[in-house]
Amino acid sequence: MDVMSTANIPLDVEAAIAHLMNFLSVEGVTGQEAAIAAAVSEALIKIGVPASAIRYDDVNSRIPLPTQTGNLIVELPGTKPGPRLLFSTHLDTVPLCAGAKPRREGDRIVSDGTTALGGDARTGVALLVVVAETLIKNKLPHPPITLLFTVREESGLHGARELNPADLKSPAMCINVDGQLASELIIGAVGQENWEVEITGRASHAGVAPDKGISATMVGAIGLTEARAAGWFGKVVKGEAFGSSNIGIFGGRDGKPAGDATNVVTDYAFLKGEARSPELSFATQIVDGFEAAFAKAKAAVTDHEGATAEVVFKRAAAYPPFRLDQDAPVVKRATRALGILGIEPTYIFSNGGLDANWLDRAGVPTITIGAGQAEIHTIKEFVKLDEYEKGCRIGILMATLED
After folding, report:
1. What local confidence, expressed as pLDDT, does residue 6 receive?
2. pLDDT greater than 60 at residue 286
């Protein structure tokens, strides 16, 4: 039987907002999370978490990008028996958040309009600290809890992807915080496969001897046209299968333009894109379509002797899809928490990847809850404080509900 109600959830709302304002003001763009991790550690120690319970893993030694620190992991011993719970969120923000100056404006927290805010996912960072503080301050009964603050979520979900599941101490379920509305429970998400193609043609004077050149840009353009004509671009539906794809980069070496003059046949082009689907096998099929399209494009562009460009196509899975049943224990637990708050849940399947994709793959059924972040990754970003408060209450309930 649930022992809490809305009235007796002992949440200090102003203290929760103060935590959020503090964390929003600490810079920590993706890959540079050392400062925000230190701020979280300091806050946890101040609220009574022993320093011995706070540690970093070595995930940064496995991430294939420079990363200042590992994931921050905090273990709260249970005050009652029960399966271990995992609460997770990510420390990093997108680069547009660098230099953010948060300010409270009525029922919102906003930036000064020159940067994004970082509510994605500093709302989650604050929420996890608030849950720990509320449990300790009010001596609320709870099972063993692990708090996981991941790095490099915004640049490839790397903190969750490369973590060692043994570091989590076998939790029965996970509550991930990385959403907007408290009523929205994200119970699944698509998988994604990335692709890239390097096209090496042959330079030639475009006016004097265009036939002696092999245009890498033309091969790229024809490849994209072929992919679109075959139904592999944008919204993709083939029978019962569906997904999406996009071409994100069409350029040259080292981020420069493909080619540097109109009177030279372009000898190199680089393209990079993605495919998403609830079934990773269909995302792979979409990428197959792009690979076939570039093979056709290669054959279509030749020089005066019939030579073609060199086309090197590469692909890599970005993250796996997952979907929880509504009767999964973690979904039922979240639904109960929302019911106590008088909130009707909406079950969401996300078209974007989350740390939850990799945590679920690691064997931890993971639901993602919202805590007020809005207009993320833009200079219009803000935090809705009423949703943040609801998120904090959901977190406290998820930590303390009777099994």
Report:
1. 54
2. yes
Kindly compute the dihedral angle of the four CA atoms of residues 183, 318, 326, 242, in this order, to the nearest 10 degrees: 100
Q: Are 315 and 194 in contact (CB under 8 A)?
A: yes
Measured CA to CA in angstroms, residue 318 lies from 69, 156, 192, 220, 352 at distances of 22, 7, 5, 23, 11
The amino acid occupying position 264 is V
Helices H / strands E in the chain, number of each = 9, 18
pTM of the full structure: 0.89
Are 34 and 68 within 8 A, CB to CB? yes
For 70-102, the pLDDT digits (tens) are 999 999 999 999 999 999 999 999 999 999 999
Condensed to tens digits (0 to 9), the pLDDT of residues 195-211 reads 999 999 999 999 999 99
Burial class (CB in 10 A: 0-12, 13-18, 19+), 379: middle
Which of these, 16, 293, 313, lies nearest to 193 by C-alpha position? 313
> 7 preceded by cis ω (within 30°)?
no
The vertex-96 CA angle with 103 and 55, nearest 5°, equals 80
Tokens read off for 252: 């040259």
